[in-house]
Design goal:
With about 110 residues, this protein is of the alpha+beta class. It has helices at about 25-45, 85-95, 95-105; strands at about 1-5, 10-15, 65, 80-85.
Length: about 110
């Protein structure tokens, strides 16, 4: 949007000023995340998921859900590929993805809808 400065007469670019900020999430994703948080808490409370499920062994308590095939789209709440994870192995999957795929902690996502 351009306008003319009344004092100098020059055309000045001024970005559109929003009256309200954009939403960080859509209404649909907000509802999905609300449901996901409840399901994830219940999942981690189950005895079989109380400790980290890292395939090479770990005895730390689970603090988060590892989405072994990703979490975008319909996979966010698909519990078939969830695993309990400690903070260290959650970070391991994020920072060393190739090693996590090689040891079986992460699964390839191409073949799953």
């Amino acid at each position: 949007m351009t306008w003319r400065d009344p004092r100098s007469g020059l055309a000045v670019y001024r970005p559109l000023q929003r009256k309200t900020p954009l939403n960080k999430r859509s209404a649909r994703l907000t509802i999905q995340m609300r449901l996901y948080r409840k399901e994830a808490a219940a999942f981690l409370a189950e005895p079989e998921h109380a400790t980290c499920e890292f395939p090479l062994g770990c005895n730390e308590p689970s603090t988060s859900v590892q989405h072994r095939r990703g979490r975008f789209g319909g996979r966010l709440r698909d519990q078939r590929y969830w695993a309990g994870s400690c903070a260290f192995h959650q970070d391991f999957a994020e920072t060393r993805t190739g090693e996590a795929l090689a040891c079986g902690w992460l699964l390839r996502i191409e073949s799953v809808r």
